[in-house]
Predict the 3D structure of the following.
Amino acid sequence: MNVPRLVRRSAGKVFPVKAPPVMSMLVKGILALLGGASSLLACASALAADSPSGRAVLPRPDKVVIVIEENRAFKRIIGSGNAPYIDSLAARGALLTQSFAITHPSQPNYLALFSGSLHGVKDNTCPVTLSGDNLGSLLLHAGFGFAIYSESMPSPGFTGCEAGKYRRKHNPAVNWQGVNIPASSNLPFTSFPSDLSKLPTLSIVVPNDDNNMHDGIPPWNISRADIWLKDNIERYVQWAMKNNSLLILTFDEDDGSEGNRIATIFAGPMVKPGRYDRRTDHYGVLRTLLDLYGLPAAGLGAAATAEALTVIWQAPARRAP
């Protein structure tokens, strides 16, 4: 490293003057510190930008409610005329026009959205008992709240495969109950609080098979589910807009007509309304939820390498080192 030399001028001539040893050492030290700091900053920036595990820093909602509908392709819902309430949500929020499920049938898609993995499950076998981290367990471990509310489920902590129009295959959290999900987080929809401020940090709402578009013949079953959403979820949407909270509406899978393309909508005050055509799937939505709350993705299968949704927010997202 070159150290600047002192000079003296005399009669138009320049004569180098050797710097005192202390000054020379001081200058060398300063230059070394500056150079080292620049290198460290450049290295950190490169790692944050290039690492696939780098967490996106996203706006953090006070509450999130995720509603999961059943078995309908994007084209059957958005702009079809059969779901005017869902169309109104899409107009108020971020509509993901290239959102996809992972597979068929229902159950493995719920597992993918909840835990980042299919766990080898290829059908609607019941019961399934699983271990390992999941969205609910990570939230609870980090001190946040979590609950799943299933319509027509007869009692808290119910582990049966069906009851009336309730189906366990649509309730992913119960598969970890007694492992890292407490029975107190597995609730019937009748437990959904009237005082919305008492909701846990993140809730999943599972309508029953009469109200999630599963049973019945299109388009009337679509219209019935649309009305159910308006009657049961719109009050939360209105509250969320005033209370820094978020609604996510999605589907487990399509009906086999559109390559598993589904409607997914984010609505809340932190969301920038519009149509977004970047491809995503259940793993990308899960990764987004993890990043919203600063939760680790490393143990959650495909969510660990999935891209979070970073362009749908009012405030630009940034990347954490």
Residues 6-50 form one domain. The chain has two domains: 6-50, 58-319. The first strand starts at residue 6 and ends at 10.
